[in-house]
Amino acid sequence: MWPTSEVRAPQVFLSFAGSDRVLAERLRHDLKKRDIKASVFPPGGNLVLDISKALTQSDYFVLLWSRATVDRPWVEAEWSAAFARELQERRSFLFIVRLDRTPLPALLAARHYLDAADHDWNGLVNELAALWVQDRSVGDPVLPAPHPVTTENGTDGRRNLVLYVRNCALSVAHVIAAPEELTGQQLEYLVHAELALPDVEEKFGGTVGMRFFYRLKNAHWTISDNPGKLADLHILDGGTIDLEVQVESFGPGGSSPVVTYRKGASTSLSPATNRSLINSAFSHLIPC
Question: Which of 239, 7, 242 is nearest to 130 (CA)?
Answer without folding.
Answer: 239
